[in-house]
Every structure is written in C-alpha cells, then in structure tokens.
Write a structure and sequence with these properties.
About 45% of the residues lie in helices and about 15% in strands. It has about 90 residues and is α+β, with helices and mostly antiparallel strands. The chain has one domain: Killer toxin KP6 alpha-subunit (Alpha-Beta Plaits, 2-Layer Sandwich). Strands 1, 2, 3 and 4 form a four-stranded antiparallel beta sheet that branches. Strand 1 and strand 2 form a beta hairpin. InterPro entries: DUF5948 (IPR045992). It holds the Pfam family DUF5948. Keywords: Signal.
C-alpha cells in the first residue's frame, strides 16, 4: 500500500509542475511573438495568480508560479503560432 501512496504523490507533483510555471512566451520555429505573448499573458490567470508582461526576456512572468502552461500554449496556437516556450 505504501507504493500506491508514493506513486500517487509523484503523479500529483508532476501534474502540478506541468500546469503551473513562472514564465511563458509565444514562440515557434519562426521566432517569438511578443504581442501575442502579451495578449495570452492577459488571458492567463485570475484571482491570486499574479502575472506581468514583459519580463526581462519579453515573457509573461508569474512570481507566484501560477501560469497554466497548457492554456498558454493553446492561446498561442489559437492565434496561429505553433506553440509556447515555458520555463521556471
């Protein structure tokens, strides 16, 4: 039974890290898109989620680590960009 709890904990921690982040920007093989990054930064997050644009690398930044990277990628793709680059 102990292994089941450990596996569940590892899964939950990895799921959280995949959803939340400190930095994202709209970017694909053709370059980065600062205007769309600003737009998606405004759409991503609410409530206690603090985010701002631009960061030092023209990214959307969240000191509270609450950018949903999956939603950010979808936002960039909705505007025709291949994806987003997100990092901590």
């Amino acid at each position: 039974m102990r292994i089941d709890y450990t596996a569940a904990l590892v899964f939950l921690l990895s799921a959280t890290s995949a959803l939340a982040g400190h930095n994202c920007k709209c970017q694909d093989a053709n370059g980065q898109y600062d205007g769309l990054t600003a737009e998606c930064c405004g759409e991503n997050g609410s409530g206690l989620c603090v985010h701002n644009y631009p960061g030092p690398n023209n990214q959307c930044s969240s000191p509270t680590n609450c950018i949903n990277s999956g939603q950010f990628v979808q936002c960039c793709q909705r505007y025709g960009v291949g994806g987003a680059f997100c990092w901590d």
